[in-house]
Request: fold
Amino acid sequence: MHNNEEVLLPTRDFLRQLIGQTKVKAKDIADVLRSRGVFTGTDQKEVTGPILIKTGLSPYEYTELRESYKTKEESPKAITRTISWDSDTNLLDAIPIVDYEALLNDQFGVFSVSRNSGFTALNDNPDHIYMDFEIERKDSVKNWGENVVVHDGRVEIRKGDDGKSLNISLSHTAPETRDFGDKVASKLIKHFKEEGYIKQTEQVKVIKFSDFTNEGRVKFLNELTQKVTHSMLSFVDTRDIHFSPDHDIANPPKDIAWMKDKIEDMKMKGQGLHSTFFVSDVAFHPYIKLFGIQCDYTFEGEHCSGTCRILFEFSDKDESAKEELTLNLSMLKLDANDSGASRPVLKKQIIESLERFKMEAYDKHKVQVS
Reply:
């Protein structure tokens, strides 16, 4: 805890509410008591909780206990955009001075930028830069200990190998971090255009649901999820599929005609779903809207290995402005982690390892404009 940090300590009923939160584990409370030299016959909250309520918390103890729920593991989601670049200037030098707090434009005082690293060169490469940030959300209607939530995000920008394009990756863990990342990216692109780094006529390219025919979308998601070339991943199985029949296309094949009038939207869970007839049989692809696929993988990096589950999904599919492909690493199990990297860091590394192949598959299967 910083010496100048003001801490309002919960007492009595407020402390009871804090202890009652499911994110505060029995072990957390027992650890506080043991650090004082207090030992009990059981670690159950019903026993240790009243002791803590009667004796209260020191500022240090409260800060430590608060971190047990503030640092709850979150699943980073990633979206990617590209735009042409028309300058020899390196990216780090092209970044302007920005009042990032002002970008929130929150008139109610609910959100604030609690941490912002500023843009930094990744691996000392000035043409591959990133900014990590945290957005703090205050919710006065929630119980003590849950009224402040912190979510992290990242904006990462790198030049293409030919120096003529930018790849913009937004990693977010909540709607507020996605919204803030959007605003940061838009602010930078506007500046780049004003300075002549990007031509005024250039538009940001995103991987959208509408960028594909029904057939192309199935091929894109199947190839992206199962081949995972250039990445740390090896495909194991398809666990979930989210799809619907395309009601705007007449005369579907007889084997799937029953779906047209009976199914509006379907999510299937199981094993080996990529081999089901309506996914493996290309004759059905023009008649199916595929929204998302969730798959299991093994992964192996230089210092880590394990298994994970990733959801590839076109989010907000009914809103054309937001129907972007989102990647969400929802489960991670480690077999080895020799580097000692945190789980959020490893999740980001896994998601980022998919970037190159994702864009290759997109260029291959999107609707080609002549």
